[in-house]
């Protein structure tokens, strides 16, 4: 399973990358705005900075919602670096654009997926990745992981090669559940990735090992 970090914050991307377990980055317009990155040129430069930190895929989202606009924006984004993946919303013109990008060798991430029907359409349109939003489904009192499981079953049955990128991950537990449900990729905030590290028995065990070592080796 691949690990992406879901942020536009360069320090957090560097911190995750230094762990040696990072396979890529996802961003969206809200995450770019959160970092105060505004204006076309600044946004493009920011994507270049992210791509200079990580070797893996970096999702860069289009703002346009019409076919011509999505294609024009996507071409510009894809030209910024070889590891850019163009992120396209699950809308009618987005589906047409996904097909166009596939035919022109540009990799894509179809975003804002909330149903298996949308996941099937994204796969048919040739998306490289498609992103079901787990946390936002949970927010509405449904179960985001049930969606991942159903998409995973359908993709396996039908032999679709679009990768399931579990997004809107909010916790370390979500990462484990997404892995069990068959997600190929999880994209998470740094806090969820670091959350995987912690277990109280690990802390207690390490403290005891170090205590015993100090007792047996007072000179250390
Ligand atoms: O990858 C999508 C993600 O950024 C959305 O997360 O927490 O805003 O639902 P959230």
Backbone CA Rg: 20 Å
Main beta sheet: strand number and arrangement? 8 strands, parallel, barrel
Shape assignment? globular
Strand content: 15-25%
Instruction: Report the helical percentage.
Output: 40-55%
Counting DSSP E segments of at least 2 residues, the number of strands comes to 8
- CATH H level: which superfamily? Aldolase class I
In total, the number of domains comes to 1
CATH topology: TIM Barrel
Q: What topology, given as strand order, has the largest sheet?
A: 1-2-3-4-5-6-7-8
- Please report the first level of CATH classification, the CATH class: Alpha Beta
Bound molecules: SN-glycerol-3-phosphate
In the CATH hierarchy, the architecture is Alpha-Beta Barrel
Average of per-residue pLDDT values = 98
**Helix/strand/pairing class, anyone?**
alpha/beta
InterPro entries: Aldolase_TIM, TAL/FSA, Transaldolase_3B/F6P_aldolase, Transaldolase_AS, TSA/FSA_arc/bac
Organism: Candidatus Opimibacter skivensis
Keywords: Cytoplasm, Schiff base
Protein name: Fructose-6-phosphate aldolase
């Amino acid at each position: 399973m691949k690990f992406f970090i879901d942020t536009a914050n360069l320090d957090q991307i560097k911190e995750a990358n230094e762990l040696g377990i990072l396979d890529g980055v996802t961003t969206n317009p809200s995450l770019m705005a959160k970092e105060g990155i505004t204006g076309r040129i600044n946004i493009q430069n920011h994507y270049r900075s992210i791509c200079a930190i990580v070797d893996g895929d970096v999702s860069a989202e289009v703002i346009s919602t019409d076919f011509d606009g999505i294609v024009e924006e996507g071409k510009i984004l894809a030209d910024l670096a070889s590891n850019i993946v163009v992120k396209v919303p699950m809308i009618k013109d987005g589906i047409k654009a996904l097909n166009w990008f596939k035919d022109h060798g540009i990799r894509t991430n179809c975003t804002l997926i909330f149903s298996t029907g949308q996941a099937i359409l994204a796969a048919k349109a040739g998306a490289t990745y498609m992103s079901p939003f787990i946390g936002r489904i949970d927010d509405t009192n449904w179960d985001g992981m049930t969606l991942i499981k159903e998409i995973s079953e359908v993709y396996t049955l039908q032999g679709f090669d679009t990768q399931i990128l579990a997004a809107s991950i909010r916790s370390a537990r979500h990462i484990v559940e997404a892995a069990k449900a068959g997600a190929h990729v999880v994209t998470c905030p740094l806090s969820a990735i670091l959350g995987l590290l912690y277990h109280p028995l690990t802390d207690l065990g390490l403290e005891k090992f170090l205590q015993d070592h100090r007792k047996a080796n007072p000179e250390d």
